[in-house]
Amino acid sequence: MITLKQKNVLRALLTLAHKDYAKGLNTRAFFKVHDKTIGEDIVQDTFLKTWSYLLKGGKIVLMKSFLYHILNNLIIDEYRKHKTSSLDALMEKGFDAPAEDQSKRMFDIIDGKTAIILIARLPHIYQRVMTLKYMKGLSIKEISTITGQTKNTVAVQAHRGLEILKTLYNPS
């Protein structure tokens, strides 16, 4: 355990470090996160982590390099945080959630039914691959396992089948 005298020495050491390095740390944090308040919070967290490290009995050889090391790690943690935005904030910025368009949904259903009909009109070599890929949702690897063909052959058949479907759908 740390004595009161040691604690006061550590407090004086950290206070001196804060006086000497806080401005530089704040500047670096601001330029990395582009937000003054977040940068200041990160710098304060840097000193809190340093304080807890010192209280645990940790030894610091160079205070400046130690502080910048902690700061850089906290900046990285800040970048990795998942940023969330509230719906109200998004709406204030002009973002509108798309309304359900029933006519578009109906056209998608009709296009899907048309595609199923057109797949039936494809040459047999492409029908099976197109059915497995687009109607069953299987991957090229899964289709090659089922059909016993190589992945390259299946990919070529899917591509050629899709090209034929495009010409059948838009015969222009």
Automatic annotation (TrEMBL):
Keywords: DNA-binding, Sigma factor, Transcription, Transcription regulation. It comes from the Bacteria. GO terms for molecular function: DNA binding; sigma factor activity. GO terms for biological process: DNA-templated transcription initiation. Residues 33-83 form the RNA polymerase sigma-70 region domain. InterPro entries: RNA_pol_sigma-70-like, RNA_pol_sigma-70_dom, RNA_pol_sigma70_r2, RNA_pol_sigma70_r4_t2, RNA_pol_sigma_r2, RNA_pol_sigma_r3/r4-like, WH-like_DNA-bd_sf. Belongs to the sigma-70 factor family. ECF subfamily. PANTHER family: ECF RNA POLYMERASE SIGMA FACTOR SIGL, RNA POLYMERASE ECF-TYPE SIGMA FACTO. This is RNA polymerase sigma factor. It comes from Candidatus Taylorbacteria bacterium CG10_big_fil_rev_8_21_14_0_10_41_48.
